Amino acid sequence: MDALLKIGGSLSKYPKKLKRLCVEISKLVGIIDIIIVPGGGEFADLVRKHYETFDITQETAHQMAIRAMDQYGLLLADITPNSVMVEYIYEAYDAITQNKVPILLPYSLVKDTHELEASWDVTSDSISLYLAYIIGCKKLILLKDVDGIYGDDELLQTVTTKWLADHPSCIDKYFPKLLSKMYVDTYIVNGLYPDRLLAALQELPAIYTRIIK
After folding, report:
1. CA distances from 144 to 35, 91, 139 (A)
2. CA-based diameter of the chain, in Å?
3. Can you say how many angstroms the Cα of residue 152 is from the centroid of all Cα atoms in its chain?
4. CA dist 103 to 54, 73, 98, 106, Å?
5. Are 101 and 34 a contacting pair, CB within 8 Å?
6. Which CATH number is 3-212 given?
7. Helix/strand number for the chain, H first, E second
8. 3-state secondary structure of 33
9. How far from 56 is each of 10, 53, 60, CA to CA, in Å?
10. CA–CA dist 44, 174 (Å, integer)
11. Strand pairing of 3-7 and 34-38?
12. Which of 7, 78, 13 shows the shortest CA–CA distance to 40?
């Protein structure tokens, strides 16, 4: 698989631009092998609210938050032309052979793994990394509503895993720890600008941040 694209839930705040992104991604069919993993967005925010209101366990909240990603995946499948929802890796490869965009609903694959701790430090970022690694993707691209990772108010073209572990960023806290064990070439790209996604896929200069070892 060439690349796993995680479409962040934050992009749902920009409906027209999210739809445009999904249309542009669908045009990659037959050119590059990609799989989409949904973020959590407002669905995950609701889980966090209930976690605080009802004082449920972190394990229950973790399972609910993964289900929230599935919910966002249903939305993405509806607005992405020529896409199909899948739950397992073999289904994703089958979709690609049929010239479809697979949108992976992650719950079935990650609900029982011990690599992802039941904590709010783990979000769809780390879940997408885990999936990219076990699928064998060459690249992981996290599509967010930010231009990349900043240091001292300056956009950084590249950061290391160690730098991530020592600095707050737009990526969840568990991500650097997992990346040190399950390294995948990772890019943080603003999904509001689909041309930047195309540049990252081709490793061309553009506005984004690349995470290196």
Report:
1. 16, 26, 16
2. 48
3. 25
4. 32, 7, 14, 9
5. yes
6. 3.40.1160.10
7. 9, 10
8. coil
9. 25, 8, 7
10. 17
11. parallel
12. 7
Low-confidence residues of the chain: pLDDT under 50: none
Q: Which residues pair with 151 in a beta bridge?
A: 154
Q: Minimal CA–CA distance to 178: which of 88, 136, 110, 117? A: 117
The encoded tokens of residue 8 equal 């962040």
Is residue 204 a contact partner of residue 210, using CB atoms and an 8 Å limit?
no
- Tell me the pLDDT tens digit for each residue of 131-177: 999 999 999 999 999 999 999 999 999 999 999 999 999 999 999 99
Which residues contact residue 211 at a Cβ distance below 8 angstroms, ignoring those fewer than 6 apart?
149, 158, 159, 160, 161, 164, 179, 185, 186, 187, 188
- Give the residue extent of every domain in the chain: 3-212
What is the model's pLDDT at position 134? 97
Phi, psi of 19 (to 5 degrees): -60, -40
3-state DSSP call for residue 31?
Answer: coil
Q: Please give the distance of CA 177 from its chain centroid, rounded to a whole number.
A: 17
- The DSSP output letter for 22 is H
Residue 171 backbone dihedrals phi, psi, to 5 degrees: -105, 150
